[in-house]
Amino acid sequence: MSRVRVIHGWKNLPESDRGAAVAMGNFDGVHRGHQKVIALAAEAARELGCPLGVITLDPHPRVYHRPQEPAFQLMKRDQQARALEALGVDILYVLPYGELAQVTDRDFAARVLHEGLGVRHVALGFDNSYGKDRTGTPDTMRQYGAELGFGVSVAAEVTDVHGEKFSSTAVREALREGRPEEAARILGRPFAVEGEVVRGRQLGRKLGYPTANVGLDDYVIPKFGVYATRTRLPDGRKLPGVANIGVNPTVDGVTEPLLEVWLFDFDEDIYDQVIETDLIAFQRPELKFDSLDAMVVQIEADVREAKAKLGV
Asked: Fewest beta carbons within 10 Å, which of 72, 81, 131, 226?
């Protein structure tokens, strides 16, 4: 459980929840580019002796404006809070985008940041836009800060050794192409699926490989196939395993993609518990087998490969 205080909205907040130095953005993934923005806000918070906050929007503007598009998110809210806690964040402000979509950039700075949150400092990325029709820019934020009395810092573009920008879009592309190592490089940690273990068809148990099944919900859908994994249990244990992401075409009846993870040397009832599984390495695409015997032979090979990749 994260110790970050999650505050919904900006109206009528007590003084104890106001006056932070904040980083502003969507922060889906809290990747290395996002971490640079948060580091600027953290520097200001230290200098001002105030809390470190992060402002994000709910729902993500893309979900609000284009709800018909495929799921694309990189983390759930509690995963985001834990990632922010690791960066020293004290407060996560979750602002309702539906109420803000028609607010001008000036009103956002004046009514939300200044009057509502009482911010001492705002850090944002070089390409951040805000306000109705996304007319707000880092330059206009500097102007509003000077008028309203809060500091502003702008994070430069963060790139890899090849000059490629660290971005949530690049993380999604890497996952869809079966390159979880590349996603982890951008994120600064492995991409992880968190969810409640649901009851499946029990086929894995009958075959000697009982899996913990987790729905993918609003996550970006990684490339279907088999992955070497590490899974965190609610008690903090982190166990190696091998997982399939997909619809298991060998067996009829599955329509929604699932994460099905088999944890090595583990035989406990974790139904209805929330687990979090890191995707470490992609091994092969999802296959349709002619028989269950053929599937078991392949699973055994997948297990050997995953153990080698994980060093167990």
From this structure: 72
Distances (CA, A) of 66 to 59, 71, 136, 172, 214: 11, 11, 21, 17, 26
Phi and psi dihedrals of 78, rounded to 5?
-70, -30
- Give the predicted TM-score (pTM) of the model: 0.92
Between the two ends of the chain, the Cα-to-Cα distance in Å is 28
Neighbours of 290 (CB within 10 A): 8
147 contacts: CB under 8 Å, gap ≥ 6: none
Secondary structure (DSSP) of 104-162: -HHHIIIIIIIIIS--SEEEEETT--BSGGG-B-HHHHHHHHHHHT-EEEEEPP-B-TT
Q: Exposed, middle or buried by CB within 10 Å (0-12, 13-18, 19+), for 175?
A: buried
The span from the CA of 104 to the CA of 91, in Å, is: 25
Element of type H or E holding 203? helix 203-207
pLDDT reading at 162 higher than 80: no
Strand, helix or coil at 288?
coil
Cα–Cα distance measured from residue 55 to residue 25, given in angstroms and rounded to the nearest whole number: 6
Separation CA 208–CA 127 (nearest Å): 51
User: SS3 for 227?
Assistant: strand
The answer to which of 77-91, 206-220, 221-235 has the lowest mean pLDDT is 206-220
